[in-house]
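step: validate -> pass
step: tokenize input -> pass
step: predict -> running
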Amino acid sequence: MAISEEKKIILAQWLLDPEKQQVVPKDLPTLEAKLKEFGLFVIYETIELPLAPILEEMQKTGIKVDVKVLEKLSKTLAAELNNLEKEIYDKASAPFNINSPKQLSEVLFDRLKIDATGIPKRKTGARSTDVETLLKIKDRHSVVAALLKYRELFKVFSTYVTPLKEFVLASKDGRIHTEFLQTSAATGRLASQNPNLQNIPIMSEWGKKIREAFVPEAGYTMLALDYSQIELRVLASVANDTKMIEAFKEGLDIHKLTAANVFDVPVEKVTSEQRQLAKTLNFGVIYGMGADAFAKTSGINREEARTFIEEYFANFADIKRWHEKTIAAARETGYVENLNGRKRWLPGINTANRRFASEAERAAINMPIQSLAADIIKLAMIKVADWLKKDKLTRQVRMLLSIHDELLFEVANDKLKAVQPKIQEIMESAYTLKVPLKVDVASGKSWAEV
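step: predict -> pass
step: emit ->
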């Protein structure tokens, strides 16, 4: 599929200025010359240009949705919301608009006289009623638990189930054709819209129920291949952290190893709570998480959080050195780049405003990791698409979605056994890091099963 000059211009402009902070040329020859000048032409030529027609084909293919599953889910949610509504009215002693922050604030803090200690006021004068606030006051009145449940179900109903049902009913082929966004994220991550299929909850009960509606055509099976801990593997490689590299090479549980080091206990003695804290810390390091954010995310106090972070960097000293080196380089050059040369400009990193400078520093830490993970899955998509075309398998194997670090396929039943290991092999060899790439594979009769 040929790529239009307009598309080439869009991709080139985005690579040069992913956050539209500068004035960039508008003609292709000048843009391509600039790409070469800034070391971005290889990414443009070998990743972004080949990917564009693949995304167009995926959008055209779409993904089948069983609307009956969504309709059944819609009725279940409507009934549960109706019951919760009655319960809330009963506990509040009067009906009101539950979805109105102003009315809810009046009910909670004026009518029911719930203790408002520590609850901030908005500009309107009303107390906050966001989820964080409701969690703080959960034990102060029985109505709050019902409100939290209502919020959760209402979001599932209004944000996911109803719009998805409308999208599939509006399509002529029973498939949802999400629009893939190639140039929306400064890190190079892919996104989707109309509808956004990347933000369907993964871990929740309702997220699984929604995914049950996404099914393959008759005679096909859903196949999902997911890069395991790819960002941590990238972190180990770019930071050249010996301890983490060895752990990945030996196939160890990286979160248990981290917990063992931070808590100074044998790996076999690590508790599930210690592992969870270590997991939060491992992924937090990728995003430049500080003590305040770690404390809030993990539910511990700030002093404990600060101690854990210090212990972490004492045990993974190469990562700490890489953090410092990366921020120093960004301050000097005004940008940060990944191993492929993809760049993100950070004009705020040298500002006197500490809040803005801290945000830029976190972006400097995160970008080389997240953007390289994005490059890897893009390269995998290109290599898989090339193989499918070469082996004339494009009808029997359809690439449907790219969701973060996962690729979702629809595979003809008689091809599944042969295709599955081949795609896994392509993905695991798509890029060479200092640690092996690992891909988890699952198949089933719906997206929920994989």
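step: describe -> Residues 88 and 94 are 9 Å apart (CA to CA).
step: cleanup -> pass
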